[in-house]
Amino acid sequence: MVTQFAMDLFNDPFFIGFNRELSRLNNAHKVNSQSYPPYDLLKLDEDTYRISIAVAGFGKEDIDVSVDNGTLIIKGEITEVADAEVVHKGIASRKFTRSFALGEYMEVTGADLKDGMLNINVDRTVPEEKKPKTIKIK
Predict the structure, then answer these.
(1) Containing structural domain, residue 7
(2) Averaged pLDDT for residues 120-136
(3) Are residue 40 and residue 19 in the same domain, yes or no?
(4) Same domain, yes or no: 26 and 42
(5) Is residue 98 classed exposed, middle or buried when 0-12, 13-18 and 19+ CB atoms within 10 A define those classes?
(6) Average of pLDDT values for 57-65?
(7) 53 touches 39 (CB < 8 A)
(8) Are 41 and 34 in contact (CB under 8 A)?
(9) What confidence score (pLDDT) does residue 134 get?
């Protein structure tokens, strides 16, 4: 969680525009304070990450993955079965929303659902003009 000290620090005029990013990160953290569904965040290499979310019982049509203003948002909702009497309900089918703040140049490059696990790939794609370069001395 972002502390008040950090918020005050980034309100300093030296940090132009950072206060909006810090506020966005703080809001993403508040939304993610829930524990359902559980997830893993894997760093596959220096520029590649995978978010794996346990969504047993959810189908592709029950899950929405989107990116809005630098935030990855995953929403899930199962439509209840109405044509059967439920004798015992042990499998969770509640709605959920998970949000992840994406850093600069981070892009969601794909998502797949297999064996009850939603895997979302996130890659850092730095534009050529932003990469370090060597200047040849004449």
Answers:
(1) 1-31
(2) 88
(3) no
(4) no
(5) buried
(6) 92
(7) yes
(8) no
(9) 87
